């Protein structure tokens, strides 16, 4: 990426990498809320909820760089260039990301690009979707009786089959999978091939902390059917481990029937 160096007398804006949390505006940090309400340019992901975007100041420019599986509004390199270009033009920028900028948010890449161009960067952490989703579903990621280790992994990335997940899930461990809806069959097969029991509890949390949130539970072996039959869509998180069975007991379990998982009505 090539950028023009600013003249010594020109003002350089600051790029704020801001975590928007899992969706509920009440879960924003105070600093994140202040920046959203005061900054004239917001570059946001598709996972940022409409309620949070509605907090932007009147007249603010909102630029969507939403990403979806196999379809990007803007390539990452172009996003990096956009942030740098706007900052060198003297504009402060809020780069608003679902969850936390530095947990599967590509915030590290954007920060590197800004620093390389001499653009100041500040990072405002957000509640990562792993914490927000599990709390909303009342699933404790750690528990004295069943889990003292938590691992976060990306379920949608290059070379998924070649990644070594051995030991990430099992007794005393919780595995949280981001972006795993589209690859649920491969994930279940991979974990069971590594020795995880087919009956290991699984929870799928869709649209966490939002009004349309739902939590689906079942065994690991039934994960692909659960996702398919219940038409799970992103944003959704997968929690695997004994703690997944400890969610809010008002949630209906899903049980395998004729190869699929069906909700109790």
Automatic annotation (TrEMBL):
SUPFAM superfamilies documented for this protein: Tetrapyrrole methylase
Occurrences of domain Tetrapyrrole methylase (ranges): 14-223
Keywords, alphabetical: Methyltransferase, Porphyrin biosynthesis, S-adenosyl-L-methionine, Transferase
Enzyme Commission code(s) on record: 2.1.1.107
Gene Ontology annotations of biological process type: methylation
Enzyme class: transferase
The protein, known as: uroporphyrinogen-III C-methyltransferase
Family, similarity comment: Belongs to the precorrin methyltransferase family.
InterPro entries: 4pyrrol_Mease (IPR000878), 4pyrrol_Methylase_sf (IPR035996), 4pyrrole_Mease_sub1 (IPR014777), 4pyrrole_Mease_sub2 (IPR014776), CobA/CysG_C (IPR006366), Siro_Cobalamin_biosynth (IPR050161), Uropor_MeTrfase_CS (IPR003043)
Pathway(s) per entry: Porphyrin-containing compound metabolism; siroheme biosynthesis; precorrin-2 from uroporphyrinogen III: step 1/1
PANTHER family the record matches: S-ADENOSYL-L-METHIONINE-DEPENDENT UROPORPHYRINOGEN III METHYLTRANSFERASE, CHLOROPLASTIC (PTHR45790:SF3), SIROHEME SYNTHASE-RELATED (PTHR45790)
GO molecular function: uroporphyrin-III C-methyltransferase activity
Gene3D superfamilies in the cross-refs: Cobalt-precorrin-4 Transmethylase, Domain 1, Methyltransferase, Cobalt-precorrin-4 Transmethylase, Domain 2
């Amino acid at each position: 990426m090539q950028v023009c160096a600013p003249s010594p007398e020109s003002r350089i804006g600051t790029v704020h990498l801001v975590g928007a949390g899992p969706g509920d505006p009440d879960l924003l940090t105070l600093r994140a809320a202040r920046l959203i309400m005061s900054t004239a340019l917001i570059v946001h992901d598709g996972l940022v909820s409409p309620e949070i975007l509605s907090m932007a100041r009147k007249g603010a420019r909102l630029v969507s760089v939403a990403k979806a599986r196999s379809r990007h509004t803007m390539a990452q390199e172009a996003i990096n260039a956009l942030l740098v270009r706007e900052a060198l033009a003297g504009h402060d920028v809020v780069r608003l990301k679902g969850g936390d900028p530095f947990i599967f948010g590509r915030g590290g890449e954007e920060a590197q690009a800004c620093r390389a161009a001499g653009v100041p960067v500040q990072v405002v952490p957000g509640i990562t979707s792993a914490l927000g989703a599990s709390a909303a579903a009342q699933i404790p990621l750690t528990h004295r009786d069943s889990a003292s280790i938590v691992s976060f992994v990306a379920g949608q990335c290059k070379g998924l089959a070649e990644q070594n997940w051995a030991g990430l899930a099992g007794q005393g461990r919780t595995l949280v999978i981001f972006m795993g809806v589209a690859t649920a069959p491969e994930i279940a097969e991979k974990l069971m091939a590594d020795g995880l029991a087919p009956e290991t509890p699984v929870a799928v949390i869709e649209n966490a902390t939002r009004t349309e949130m739902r939590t689906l539970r079942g065994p690991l072996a039934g994960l692909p059917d659960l996702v398919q039959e219940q038409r799970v869509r992103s944003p959704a998180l997968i929690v695997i481990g004994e703690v997944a069975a400890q969610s809010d007991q008002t949630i209906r379990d899903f049980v395998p029937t004729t190869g699929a998982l069906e909700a109790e009505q």
